[in-house]
Amino acid sequence: MNPARDWQFSRRTLLRAAGSTLLVPTFLRQAFAQSPPTVPNLILLMQTNGTHQASFWPTATSFTSPILAPMLTDPVVGPKATVVKGINLVKSGNPGGNGHDWGWHSLYSGVDNIARGSDQFGGGPSVDQILLSKLKFSTPFKNIHCGVTAANYRLINAGRASWVCQSAGLQVPCEIDIYGLYTKVFGSLTTTGPTGTPADPQKAMRRLAQRKSVLDAVAADLQTLEGRLGPTERAKVDVHLQAVRDFESRLSDSVTTGTVKPPASCASVKPSKTGVPSTGQGNEANADALFQLFMEFIANAIGCNMVSILTFQAGRGGEHFHYDWLNLQGMRADFHDDIAHKDDGSDAVAGQVMVGVAQYYTKLVTTLAQKLAAFPSGNGGTALDNALIVYGNEIATGPHGTNGYPLVLLGGAAGKLKKTGYLVDAGTQPHHRLGCTIQNIMGVPAAGFGAQPNCGVLSGLSLA
Fold first, then answer.
1. How many folded domains does the chain comprise?
2. Residue 83 in contact with residue 423, Cβ under 8 Å?
3. How would you class 444 by CB atoms within 10 Å of its CB: exposed for 0-12, middle for 13-18, buried for 19 or more?
């Protein structure tokens, strides 16, 4: 496959075929109107409650482990995975809260959390916000911060609602309405010219309830468009169209069967005197379906080149999910209190459950990477080749350990990672190096990060 020829198709052939009259979805026009990427698409993921250390780390001779096996043994994703061992949280002062608050706010910011009354907040901007202030992006949406907060308990403190911060104490709200996000990102139609038809949330919801696709409104135009393209180009277009149709189908199932009910607003997960709402993101019964939908949404949004930086949180800081949907033998009432906190080596059952939960998240992230790998890119590679996924955790171990943060990098980062598919084990390293590394991969030269301005990048990582 000739990368230059692919790029020529991406920038010219699709637009020429569509002309100035055909109505096409914005996501399709955006997906193929890009030059070869020089800056990766960035996805930052945050899990909670740490991991079972003995089952997480692969060895240098056997690049797999009980927890990471679904990812590292996958023939597509495994070769694009880089596992980084030895990351320790290094505090610059004496932050309040506990290990959950420290990692929740510091892993991606490099600065300690700050106390405001009894609540803990980030003490500075997270790396995604730093990048947004220094880089220019051509995607319709520069960034999206989203997550699943379907938990049946009141928020522990306000700082744990979101780990993304613009500045000290200023959180970026976590978008939790998957239907609203779908409408915002995939619901608009536009011609190849400058004008377009914006998304209408109410119409989009009615369309989903009626099991109709946004593509139905432009079916004739799409048929005409594909008739003007060659077989290779048609196949690439079909990948994007099918991905969004499949996503809409699953969203429609959630609407019509009541699998997931959309919240009226983010207010639905705020603490209240009467407790947490029983539907939508306030109901853990929806958690698994929401996790699956969000992974698909993230892959489609990045694969169709609609957003440049996407951040995601699996719950809120120190999450208290029960994980009933996993049916794990030995699971107790509260994963945080009754499992994670007891995973100190003396409770074998707690360790087994920790592994089961960690495997679940590994499978989710693997699915995300697989979906990205299915999207062709304008430079002859895939969306996974051009992305940097950072899969992190707010804490290293369930009992608030902060040494040995579980960390996996996925993707080729648009060529900025010269080597992937191996274990980085270069000894103990401060967590500030993660943010420094991310900045340099994204094209922002940096000698350090957060509280350590000269920490350097991660040792043992092969950067271009």
1. 1
2. yes
3. middle
**Is the per-residue pLDDT at 11 higher than 70?**
no
Q: Answer whether residue 424 is part of any domain.
A: yes
Helix axes 178-186, 201-209, angle to 10 degrees: 110
DSSP secondary structure string for all residues of 233-252: HHHHHHHHHHHHHHHHHHHH
Which run of H or of E encompasses 47?
A: strand 41-47
**Residue 22 pLDDT > 90:** no
DSSP code per residue over 111-130: S--EEETTEEE-SS--HHHH
Structural domain including 387 reads 34-177+263-441
Asked if 182 and 247 count as a contact pair (C-beta separation under 8 A), the reply is yes
Picking from 170-179, 201-210, 328-337, 391-400, which range would have the lowest pLDDT averaged per residue? 201-210
Report how far residue 355's alpha carbon sits from residue 309's, in angstroms, rounded to the nearest whole number: 30
pLDDT of res. 19: 79
**311, 143 Cβ separation under 8 angstroms:** yes
DSSP β-ladder status, 165-167 and 24-25: unpaired
pTM of the model: 0.91
Distance between CA atoms of 355 and 327, rounded to whole angstroms?
Answer: 13
What's the mean pLDDT in 107-113? Answer: 98
Q: Is residue 114 part of a domain?
A: yes
Is the pLDDT at 424 greater than 70? The verdict is yes
Q: Residue 311 burial by CB count (10 A; 0-12/13-18/19+): exposed, middle or buried?
A: buried
d(CA 384, CA 386): 5
CA distance 16 to 9: 10
CATH code: domain of residue 79? 3.40.720
What mean pLDDT do residues 2-16 have? 54
Residue 238 covered by a domain? no
For residue 38, being part of any structural domain is answered with: yes
- Answer whether 64's CB lies under 8 Å from 73's CB: yes
Q: Is the pLDDT of residue 425 over 60?
A: yes
